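=== RUN LOG ===
request id: a7f3
mode: sequence -> structure
chains: 1
length: 137
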Amino acid sequence: MIKESDIQNYLYARNIPYTDHASIYAVILPKYSFMRTMMATMLEVQHFVIHFGRTGISVIVVNDLTGRLDLYGFLFFPGERIQNVQFFRRVTHDQLVIRLTDGVRVYRVNKRMMMLPWHKSNLKALTYKSPVYYNQC
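=== RESULT ===
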């Protein structure tokens, strides 16, 4: 189980300022094809913790085996590279779209995550009380 203090320590170790109530849990699902089995598709799901800081957006990989923050899986998008951040509402989840100067990153954000009590409250704070644009699609 990942705690917000784990995220804070992870970011501080990389000299990135931490912002309270600005972390969410997200996944990238592989494109499903008829050539793959459902089991193979499920094994390719990638898990992340995304932190919206004052200087940019941090994307931290969650290790599939341990469920902990991966020491080497880390991306940082500085504010200069970020053009737009949008949440799109879906029936069972939200879709997070981060538009950068050199591409687009798309993440699936579930509304609730078991064993991560901070996720639901942080998602609500990010989508309703911050400058992050929330599109009611």
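=== NOTES ===
Residues 117-129 form the longest helix (13 residues).
DSSP finds three helices and eight strands in the chain.
=== END ===
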